[in-house]
Specification:
By secondary structure, the protein is an alpha/beta fold. The protein folds into 2 domains: about 1-235, Spore Coat Polysaccharide Biosynthesis Protein SpsA, Chain A; about 235-305. Helices cover about 55% and strands about 10% of the residues. It contains 11 helices and 7 strands. It has helices at about 1-10, 30-35, 55-60, 75-85, 105-115, 135-150, 170-175, 185-195, 215-235, 235-265, 270-305, and strands spanning about 15-20, 40-45, 65, 90-95, 120-125, 165, 200. It has a 7-stranded mixed β-sheet with strand order 3-2-1-4-6-5-7, with helices on both faces. Helix 3 links the parallel strand 2 (about 40-45) and strand 3 (about 65). It is elongated and about 85 Å long. The chain starts with a helix and ends with a helix.
Length: about 300
């Protein structure tokens, strides 16, 4: 494996494709063969597959990097990015190994990067709506789009698309904390953090097979990951906005206690305690958000100075 990567590195591929895969023996061979028509190097990160995914991918001409056990998509992408940095490609492409993404659309995806117009290009199934996306997926995607756009401060139409291209600059700067499928949402936060330029192109997504995971379960995993990302990247947003809402609710409840006292000349002790509790928790949450926001800004500044 190391010797093969060293031989590939000597040529510095212009276009490198990374495909994270878990039990994709049904599709991975054809995907690799089609992708190789548009890429100089293809790396498969076999994330603990128990079928013939790795063997088929290698036979089709891909470099295969194996995880001994399933670690999640984010971990697989981190492994792929580490290998890609050794090769130094001009542009890196991510796509899935389940046949959903069309390899023939790779040139569309990498064009903005090669023209120097973007650092991250997202293949969107909603720009021109050429894809027949199941209704339940559309609802989930729109909810996650809204949430990801709000917390990242950027606006795109398909935050959950796994079909993406990256410039050499983005490849060097990006590493993921997410281990699950929330890694796509994390990319938007990282783009904002590193001042990377985002762009979208319209692509066609196919759904050749039933989902391997429960749609609801998958959605809950993504939601949990996004909430963790918000707490890490936007602590002021995560803590202070709920804190302000709790504080205002507590104050409103307190005003109701005052009104009741004026009407009946008797203190509503239970309501008063709720008011005090909400006000205290809200105030603590607001200051927690401010403190964590300041600490994160300081840490980022220290890291930036260290890297200069």
């Amino acid at each position: 494996m190391t010797d093969l990567i060293q031989r590939e590195a000597a040529g510095s591929p212009k276009v490198l494709v990374i495909i994270p895969a878990y039990n994709e023996e049904r599709f991975i061979g054809s995907v690799v063969l089609k992708v190789r028509q548009h890429a100089d190097t293809v790396i498969i990160v076999d994330d603990g597959s128990t079928d013939g995914t790795a063997e088929i991918a290698e036979a089709a001409g891909a470099i295969v990097v194996k995880h001994p056990e399933n670690k999640g998509k984010g971990a697989a992408l981190n492994t792929g990015f580490q290998q890609a940095r050794q090769l130094g490609p001009e542009v890196l492409v991510l796509l899935d190994g389940d046949g959903q993404h069309l390899p023939e659309e790779v040139p569309l995806l990498i064009a903005p990067v090669l023209r120097g117009e973007a650092d991250i290009v997202i293949g969107s199934r909603y720009l021109q709506k050429r894809s027949q996306v199941p209704a339940h997926r559309v609802w989930g995607h729109q909810a996650f789009n809204w949430l990801t756009n709000v917390i990242s401060g950027t606006r795109i139409t398909d935050s959950q698309s796994g079909y993406r291209a990256f410039s050499a600059r983005a490849l060097e700067l990006i590493s993921f904390n997410s281990e699950s499928f929330s890694v796509e949402s994390e990319m938007q936060l990282l783009a904002r953090q590193h001042n990377l330029r985002l762009a979208e192109v319209s692509v066609t997504i196919r759904y050749p097979d039933k989902p391997k995971r429960s749609v609801i379960g998958h959605g809950l995993v993504v939601l949990n990951g996004i909430l963790r990302l918000v707490s890490q990247h936007r602590p002021l947003f995560f803590f202070s906005i709920p804190g302000v809402l709790l504080l205002l609710t507590g104050l409103a409840w307190g005003a109701w206690v005052v009104i009741l006292y004026r009407l009946y000349r008797e203190l509503a002790v239970g309501y008063a305690l709720i008011s005090v509790l909400l006000s205290i928790v809200g105030t603590l949450a607001v200051f927690t958000g401010i403190i964590l926001h300041s600490m994160r800004a300081l840490l980022l500044e220290l890291v930036s100075r260290r890297n200069e």
